[in-house]
Amino acid sequence: MAHDKVLFEILIRLADDHLVLGHRLSEWCGHAPMLEEDLSMPNMALDLIGQARSLYAYAGEIENRGRDEDAIAYLRTEPEYKNLLLVEKPNEDFAHTMLRQFYFAVFMEEFWKEAISSSDNTLAGIAGKAMKEIAYHIRHCGEWIIRLGDGTEESSRRMRAAVEVLHPYTDEMFDHDDVVAAAVSAEIIPDPLLLRPRWEQGVQTVFKAAKITMPNDYWALRGGRAGQHGEEMGFLLADLQYMQRTYPGMTW
Amino acid sequence: MNKETPVWEVFIRPRTGLAHKHAGSVHAADEVMALQAARDVYTRRGEGQSVWVVRSADIVAFDPADKDELLEPSADKIYRHPSFYNIPDDVGHM
Fold first, then answer.
1. Which terminus of chain B is less hemmed in, N or C, by CB atoms within 10 Å?
2. pLDDT tens-digit profile of A10-29?
3. CA-to-CA distance for A111 and A103, rounded, in angstroms?
4. A29 at interface of B, judged by CB pairs closer than 8 A
5. Which of B1, B29, B40 sits opposite A40 (nearest CB)?
6. How many whole angstroms separate alpha carbon B66 and alpha carbon A87?
7. A101 contacts chain B (CB < 8 A)
8. A39 contacts in B (CB within 8 Å)?
9. Which chain B positions have a beta carbon within 8 Å of A40's beta carbon?
């Protein structure tokens, strides 16, 4: 596979993860359980969407077909989005939202740590900025998971329910396919399999404090990387793409 | 919610060398979450170099009912203001 094609595909996957998760977090704006979290979640959403913008803009450059970040972010069809299923899962409740963010952030921190020495200089630059932002996401969501998991009867029940629903979606982060293999051998990205023990350790540390058992018997769910999404994705995209579809080329 | 998440007062130091200034308050379950809430609510536009949080209940304050004896006596002592000196022009702005 040609180098640029691999790089483009990797950038799209990463950018889609960040855009979709950022969009999900932004859905909490005005609906959070308390004012403090009503600002905290959009803060994190803005971090993610900022990272997505850099990645889309660079992907457009690599593709070299005249698509800018908006065209890629807003004007594709559902199967062209290559985000993990994990990040498109609905918010459900605060426990689901914190856990989904935490699973992703722990993975991305390990990913960026390695990507900072990527053979691709632009990706390495994006990694440097993203690492600081993602570190706060881990800290914030981790503290909430501890307090909810080891909190009241209800908070603990909800946290456990979230783990049961979301944990099967975490395997997809470590999946290998032709694109990942080519990108790893070109040293564009770290081998996700090497990140897995570090991810498990990071999650385990928080789960232990939260008195949550790490599931080990589950049926792993995947498909997003191949463009096969869950039922919720269409509704998410309808919301996300509305403005550009209705008023093509609109800018602020 | 107020019992589980008490109020914390937030103090922010805008720049090195300046004093921490009261910025507002947040609700949080404990000091770790209070600092994070303070960061999320009050430092979104680069306002701060340093953030303090103090549990509101730990702040000891004047009883407003005592203001006659605590605050009133200073009202007529204008000589405490350094406004009776002639500042030489050479000194410039003070």
1. C
2. 999 999 999 999 999 999 99
3. 13
4. no
5. B40
6. 57
7. no
8. 40-41, 44
9. 36-37, 40
**Residue A18: both structure tokens together:** 């960040």
* Residue appearing with tokens 């691709």: A120
Number of Cβ pairs closer than 8 Å across A and B? 29
Q: Residue type for A224, please?
A: G
Q: Best of A36, A39, A102, A143 to disrupt the B interface by mutation (most B CBs within 10 Å)?
A: A36
Mean pLDDT of B27-44: 95
The pLDDT value given to residue B80: 84
Q: Return the CATH number of A3-214+223-246, one of 2.40.160.40, 2.30.40.10, 2.60.40.10, 1.20.1260.10.
A: 1.20.1260.10
The tens digit of pLDDT for each residue in A97-114 reads: 999 999 999 999 999 999
For A33, nearest residue in chain B (alpha carbons): B1
Q: How far apart are CA B32 and CA B53, in angstroms?
A: 10
| pTM of the predicted model as reported, rounded to 2 decimal places | 0.91
What is the CATH classification number for the domain harbouring B25? 3.10.20.520
Mean pLDDT of chain A: 97
Instruction: Kindly indicate the confidence band of residue B38, based on its pLDDT and cuts at 50, 70 and 90.
Output: very high
| Of residues B32, B40, B44, nearest to A36 (C-beta) | B40
Domain count, chain B: 1
Is the model's pLDDT at A197 over the cut of 90?
yes
- Residue B1 within any structural domain of the chain: no
Domain ranges of chain A: 3-214+223-246
Residue B38 lies in a domain: yes
Q: Is B40 in Cβ contact with A43 (below 8 Å)?
A: yes
Distance CA A209, CA A225 (A): 32
d(CA B9, CA B7): 7
Would you say the C-alpha torsion A114, A118, A121, A126 has a positive or negative sign? negative
The closest CB to that of A39, out of B28, B29, B41, belongs to B41
In this prediction, residues B45-73 reach a mean pLDDT of: 90
